[in-house]
Amino acid sequence: MISNARKSKMGGKIGIRDRICCHQWTWFTMTMATGGIANVLHSVWTPYRSNWIWCIGLFFFIFNLCLFVMNCVLITMRFIMVPGSFMHSFLDQVESLFIPAVVVSTGTILINTCEYGIPMTGPWLKNTMEWLFWVYIFVSIVASVGIYLILWSTQIFPIHTMTPVWVFPGYPLLLTAPFASTLIAADDASSGLPVNRLPIAMCAVAVQGTGFLISFMICAAFIYRLMTQKLPRDMQRPGVFISIGPSGFTVAGLVSLGQQAQIIIPDNLQASGHTVAILELLSIIAGLWLWGLCVWFFLASVGSLWKYVRPEHTMPFQMTWWSFVFPNTAFVTATFALATAVSSNGLRIAACVMTGILIVVWALVFITMLRCLWNRKLLWPKELEDR
Predict the structure, then answer these.
(1) How far apart are CA 88 and CA 232, in angstroms?
(2) Looking at residue 123, what is its pLDDT?
(3) For residue range 231-286, what is the model confidence (pLDDT) as tens digits?
(4) H or E stretch covering 276
(5) pTM of this prediction?
(6) Nearest by Cα to 219 from 266, 164, 291, 263
(7) Are the beta carbons of 332 and 43 closer than 8 angstroms?
(8) To 5 degrees, how large is the angle CA 212–CA 215–CA 216?
(9) Contact 108/63 with Cβ under 8 angstroms?
């Protein structure tokens, strides 16, 4: 559609305007991954309190803000320069699945703001983030339900084309518990009037559970697809890592909220003296259960890339390569949450090693993306080039 819309304006030369017209919602996976790295670095900083770790995490946070603004500007320009492309993006089989990426990117920015912003500002930011939490809850539910309804009403997805990318419209729901736990932790460490911790925690658990169950059912269907159709094609292979995210974010959120039960549960509900201990224990048991599922999906996802070790097999770069990063940030933060809950130095060291590897992967994907932009493999109307 984009290429055909530009044909009448082309003089045989592809300019910057034409490249901007190729910008899609998939580019917000980059800001999801970059914000996830900032979140992981804050998880590293929490037990070690090292200034240089804080500074690197702050850099990723600010850099992610710049990337997010750039994506918003570019995709707005595309919608203005190509009339009808906005509605078309909701009806495209591939691009429509990635529309919630802008909501997830916003969620990671809000979490990073709680981590890096509230400790450096006054109570006003904490109160603002409390309001934004409820706004995010509303937007995430509307976005998830709305996108799925549009897809179910307008598209037909054959089972042999299925990948965990089908989970993507449910991803905004999966950031609610991590958002709540981060906001409550920042509130506990700051001054001023406390936020309404119990309503925030209860709502976050409800929405997080909804998002996880939706994602779990889709991942179960993906297992059926693998049993009947083998692994996805090369260009779809990075999407396998998306199956790690639902359990990873759920572990990170629930375990962190469980460890904060002392400051969340009101005194009148702690009368028996066992309420907090029971909630902490339940969060750890549920966390270990789902963390095992996260590990299993991680090993299966890495194993699906084994054939690319051989030089005769290559994987074409697409923006879905950021799936190598963002779902794994959930895995790492979940590992840190469990390490804190069970006081395990082994898990904490493993999570630190995973963090280092993840930053290297982020850098490799980012450099590859820039190289493809330079080599005209990204943001390039290939039909027009052939013509």
Answers:
(1) 26
(2) 85
(3) 888 788 888 899 999 999 999 999 999 999 988 888 776 665 688 888 999 999 99
(4) helix 275-303
(5) 0.91
(6) 164
(7) yes
(8) 80
(9) no
**Tens-place pLDDT, residues 129-185:** 999 999 999 999 999 999 999 989 988 888 877 888 889 999 999 999 999 999 999
Residues in the chain: 387
Phi-psi region of 24 (alpha: psi -120 to 50; beta: other; left: phi over 0): beta
Q: Give CA–CA dist 26/319, Å, rounded.
A: 6
pLDDT number for residue 190: 76
Distance, CA of 68 to CA of 74 (rounded, Å): 10
- Structural domain boundaries, residue 299: 2-307+314-386
- CA of residue 89 relative to chain centroid, distance: 20
C-alpha dihedral sign at 95, 100, 102, 108: negative
Name which of 43, 92, 35 is nearest 69 in CA terms.
35
How many domains would you assign to the chain?
1
302-326 average pLDDT score: 86
How many whole angstroms separate alpha carbon 387 and alpha carbon 382?
9
Q: What three-state secondary structure class fits 194?
A: coil
**Residue 244's domain is classified under what CATH number?**
1.50.10.150
Q: Is residue 12 over pLDDT 70?
A: no
